[in-house]
Write a structure and sequence with these properties.
This protein has 302 residues and is α/β, with parallel strands linked by helices. It is 38% helix and 15% strand.
């Protein structure tokens, strides 16, 4: 089987463990490629050196502007993938050289399923270089019960049957892009597999995707949760940007039409909604929405 591993970047990665691991995969039965999809125009010299040293690795630069969007990157990578199986991960996770064989075995026993991996994040400390797998495993722990961003293996037909990842602007930057796809896959009746192994490890590093305007981020996260809630309740299984815009217009997170514009796909007038009067209120709304989504995820989880 030919397998396409797809990862993404928005110009902020400090570590490139995924590329290093992909170059080191060993399998007597399966072939693979890694497509590193960069949202912007170019990648750094360190990644270029890694790619030039392995015929399995290739870089796709989308040369786009504005806030990076993981969904756009992963969809574009999937369009160019040659594999009979797609594996999506972050660009700074670590896995063993037998990762490919383990994933293919699970896929062949559960064709048509979406396979989500367990991710273990390292406690804050410096990881030796090169990485010591034993040390990494001993100093890492699962940080989220429903970490659907850890990684996903899925057949191309199943992936595209629900429209792939959402590319709606409300999911640009950090947030719930992976959890949103999970909800639509479950709504479509796709079997979900969460095996105990292989595990993905996220070695500690000092920074992540940078900082941004806190008010904008709070509103965006609250909106993402709200959209996911609505898709779960209304059993939405395919990408529908018009419907997401409708959810945003009806959401309680805006005081006027202009405040909603950055989050809409179609820039049209938005009716007034109730106002978030403070950061404390915004956090409260996020907490309420997050608790509801956890209940939905628990109800949907296998």
């Amino acid at each position: 089987m030919f397998v396409s591993l797809i990862t993404w970047d928005g110009g902020f990665r400090e570590s490139f463990h995924t590329a290093e691991c992909a170059a080191s995969l060993t399998s007597e039965s399966h072939e693979s490629e890694l497509i590193w999809t960069e949202y912007y125009a170019a990648v750094g010299s360190r990644l270029e050196t890694l790619v030039s040293g392995s015929p399995r690795l290739r870089v796709l630069c989308l040369n786009l502007r504005g806030e990076w969007h993981a969904g756009v990157c992963m969809n574009e990578g999937a369009k160019r993938a040659k594999g009979d199986l797609l594996i999506f991960t972050d660009g700074d996770v670590y896995y063993g050289s037998d990762f490919l064989d383990q994933v293919v075995k699970i896929h062949q026993a559960n064709e048509g399923a979406a396979i989500y991996f367990r991710r273990y994040d390292q406690i804050k400390q410096t990881e030796p270089r090169p990485i010591d797998p034993g040390h990494l495993a001993a100093t890492s722990q699962p940080m989220k019960n429903f970490n659907f961003g850890a990684g996903l293996a899925i057949a191309p037909g199943t992936f595209w049957s629900v429209g792939g990842f959402s590319t709606h602007p409300v999911f640009a930057g950090a947030g719930r892009i992976n959890g949103e796809l999970y909800i639509r896959l479950r709504n479509a009746g796709t079997p979900i597999i969460i095996p105990k192994s292989p595990k993905l490890y996220h070695p500690w590093h000092p920074n992540s995707s940078g900082t941004g305007d806190i008010d904008h981020l709070e509103r965006k996260f609250a909106l993402q949760e709200y959209v996911c809630d609505q898709e779960a309740v209304n059993v939405i299984s395919t990408v529908d940007d018009i419907l997401i815009d409708q959810y945003i217009r009806k959401s309680p997170f805006f005081s006027n039409a202009e405040s909603a514009q950055p989050f809409l796909k179609n820039q049209t007038a938005v009716p007034a909604a109730s106002k978030i009067g403070s950061k404390r209120q915004a956090r409260r709304l996020i907490e309420i929405s997050a608790r509801f989504l956890r209940r939905v995820a628990k109800r949907l989880s296998p």
